[in-house]
Design goal:
Number of domains: 2
Structural class: mainly beta
Bound molecules: calcium ion
Shape: globular
Order of helices and strands: EEEHEEEEEEEEEEE
Length: 248
């Protein structure tokens, strides 16, 4: 998996950046703009030649299908002035497999085995494993939903005895409707503040990551989906599937 980050959408007068997938032959690429997910693309480049060591090429292309094509006047500069592309960092890592790091029932194919749900007000039954609209992989996914009653549910898994290091969680989400909050989050102790990624609205399965967290030797992680929905939320739902725990 290759993560592609770029900045510029919120820059007002700055030209928007366009991405091209033609220069990388990973089997999937996640595109982000100003840290927001733009798109996830999966490719079939699994031929032998694409499994060899290869290079990243960073270039600046102005305009594209996602952000439109600016007119030449909009990007014209005085004679002698230059446009620059500033690259803050390039991240390259192998995908952390849920199995390799010991996540239990990462795809919810065994119901809620390995997962617990907490609720402050007895509405934890909003969290279920089901097949509605299909899983990201397999048949089942986690769902947070009720037919219309308000709820708050925190569906989580814990892992202890971890090697020292920096970790993050990844999962695939669909989400619609209205929530008081909807968070993919991770904590390094039961009473620690959570590191949170607020979920957006996703009509199709979209990859979301928690912030990276650092744990000491023999460390602990508690991670999962925490959502709270108001009354009349019958059309509000979250589906989560294929959770991965990644050690960076
Ligand atoms: Ca699944």
């Amino acid at each position: 998996m290759l993560d592609v980050f770029a900045c510029g959408r919120s820059g007002g007068s700055h030209p928007q950046l366009a991405f091209s997938s033609h220069y990388a032959y990973a089997n999937s690429i996640v595109f982000r703009l100003d840290k927001d997910f733009v798109s996830t693309a999966t490719f079939g480049h699994n031929e032998t030649e694409f499994q060899q060591p290869h290079h990243l090429i960073l270039n600046l292309a102005i305009g594209g299908n996602w952000c439109g094509h600016p007119s030449p006047d909009a990007i014209d500069l005085p004679w002698g002035a230059k446009k620059t592309m500033e690259v803050e960092s390039v991240c390259w890592y192998q995908p952390g497999g849920a199995q390799s790091l010991g996540l239990t029932n990462a795809g919810f194919e065994q119901g809620l085995t390995g997962w617990d749900t907490w609720s402050p007000n007895g509405t934890g039954s909003a969290a279920i494993s089901e097949t509605y609209n299909g899983g990201h992989s397999g048949s089942f996914h986690l769902t947070h939903w009720t037919s219309g009653s308000p709820f708050e549910a925190w569906t989580y898994q814990t892992k202890s005895g971890l090697q020292a290091g920096t970790y993050k969680l990844r999962a695939w989400f669909r989400k619609g409707g209205t929530f008081d909050f909807a968070r993919f989050q991770v904590k390094t102790c039961g009473s620690c503040a959570a590191s949170v990624s607020d979920l957006g609205t996703y009509s199709g399965y979209t990859l979301v990551e928690t912030p990276a967290v650092t744990v000491p030797a023999n460390g602990y992680l508690e991670f999962g989906l925490h959502s709270k929905a108001p009354t009349h939320n019958g059309s509000s739902f979250i589906h989560m599937d294929d959770v991965e725990r990644v050690r960076l």
